[in-house]
Amino acid sequence: MSARLHITVYRHLAVDDFNRVTPIPMVPPVTEMFVEIGATSSQSDPFPKFSRFIMVKPDVSCALDFGTDPVANPDYHFVEAGERMWYGVEEGDKIAVVEVI
């Protein structure tokens, strides 16, 4: 199996019994997806309607980019293998990933 960038897309943060927003995503997520990580930049599908933030976790060290037509560059936005990162996103945008060796 090839290396992947695992992506979980969320809409809301959870709310506690006192109606306070907590720093925990509300599940179920809007969707889950992945992008194959390789030597050239690869893009995800567009984030679906109601996407507000994502959690990503790469199988290998990589670099990321975001936007409507992102291109990941191995010299920018490094994420270590196994690291979980959180980002605010807009529906319709994409994430691009490239392996960093």
What does this structure look like?
The chain has 101 residues and is mainly beta. It has one domain (4-99). Helices cover 0% and strands 47% of the residues. The chain is built from no helices and ten strands. Strands 4-1-6-9 form a four-stranded antiparallel β-sheet, with no helix packed on it. Strands 5-10-7-8 form a four-stranded antiparallel β-sheet, with no helix packed on it. A hairpin with a 5-residue loop joins strand 2 (13-15) and strand 3. It is elongated and about 45 Å long.
* Structural class category: mainly beta
The tally of beta strands, per DSSP, is 10
Tell me the distance between the termini.
18 Å
Spatial strand arrangement across the major sheet: 4-1-6-9
Pick out the low-confidence regions. Answer: none
Shape: elongated
Secondary structure: helix percent: under 10%
The domain count comes to: 1
What's the multimeric state? single chain
Q: Average the pLDDT over all residues and give the rounded result.
A: 97
**How would you sum up the major sheet?**
4 strands, antiparallel
SS summary, helix count: 0
Strand content: over 45%
Query: Helix and strand string, N-terminal first?
Result: EEEEEEEEEE
Q: What is the CA-based Rg, rounded?
A: 14 Å
